[in-house]
Amino acid sequence: MNQIQETLISLNAEYKKYISNLNKDDLKELNLRKIKKLRLYGIFSSYYYKRNNLLKKGNITTGYLYKIFNDTGKNGISIGYVLHSPMLEFLDGEIYKNDIYPTITRFLEGKSNYKNNKLKNILTNNVAELHYFLIPKELIGYDDVYISTIPILSSEEIYLGLNYFIVNLSISKEILLVRKDLKERLFAQINNKNSKN
Length: 197
Fold this sequence. Notes:
Radius of gyration: 17 Å
Structural class: alpha+beta
Oligomer: single chain
Number of helices: 7
Strand content: 15-25%
Largest sheet: 6 strands, antiparallel
Shape: globular
Number of strands: 6
């Protein structure tokens, strides 16, 4: 078992304990409904109403944020594009960074042998709501790699590259970012536990 798998096991153990003790108001804060700027994001999507369930039954995993579309006209909400997969070999983000993202970039720049104008339009539409959008194996050479979009507040500290997300495809075709406060809380609990051992 590698370091990232061990980290995810610890994060999920702490997350399950933390989430089981939250009331409805706390859940609303985590699922974006209490954040004023994000309150209406996705309100017309069926996934919006599944977020409490996703939070309670979801698991933390990694995803590779490869693009942030800054839309200053929507109350400082930006759209992040995330590559993710249930496959273990993608957890550390190296394949995304070194192979999949460069392949997608070449495709979008018209430098790829793979031609698909419909796919190109989908991936360059900065207002598209992509949730578990399967990338064709013919383009990237891998099975089970998806793109999802997430809302990002301009004030959030989030970086291009590997980040943590809450997922459960059987509950919702949406992924939720593990926001800064929650991530810090979970890592603090893990560090506190490790210091006692």
